[in-house]
Automatic annotation (TrEMBL):
The protein's name in its UniProt record: Dopa 4,5-dioxygenase
Pfam families named among the record's database cross-references: DOPA_dioxygen
Residues passing through the membrane, by range: none
Organism domain of life: Eukaryota
Gene3D superfamilies noted in UniProt: DOPA-like domains
Signal sequence region: none
Protein's organism: Dendrothele bispora (strain CBS 962.96)
InterPro entries membership: DOPA-like_sf, DOPA_dioxygen
Amino acid sequence: MELDLRPSTNLQTVLDNEVKEWHFHIYFHQKNADEHHAALELRDAVLRLRREGAFVAVPLFRVNTEPVGPHPIGSYEIWVPTETFASVFSYLCLNRGDLSILIHPLTREEVRDHELRCAWLGPSYPLDLSCLPLRREELPLQYPSLKLGYSSTTPALSLEDRRRLGTNVENLLKAEKAAARAPLVD
């Protein structure tokens, strides 16, 4: 079976498949004391900023001082709901120092999430994907008590509201010479 790699343009399909939760894996060479220390300082900073309300980001309790799962060196995971993804991404872009960070969505397809749907801040590392399941039946919900991400109870915009918003944006951008125009509807 051949994989269709064309981008979807069906609004309902796009909304139904929107990623709601993410993992940021902060990597460090476990035998490098300076990197290990920098990684733990970054973790503590994220925790302090979460407490202060800068964003919602939940580092896993465990810090892996050896390779674990697909991760080839020391690492820890930070769970981030889509509601604060941009704030966490921005913070880590500007404050990661020399550390590498793997970012991937949480969907039912862990191998694709780690291999094809991922991004890196800093140099990438080869992952051992053989330990990951190809597909899960259930979405990997984390921290449902927060009512964010896949557990959110906030009503989504209706398709009609989304279309109105899109039309408004297109109209506003008509005056912007550098903005690309959306193709005409088929």
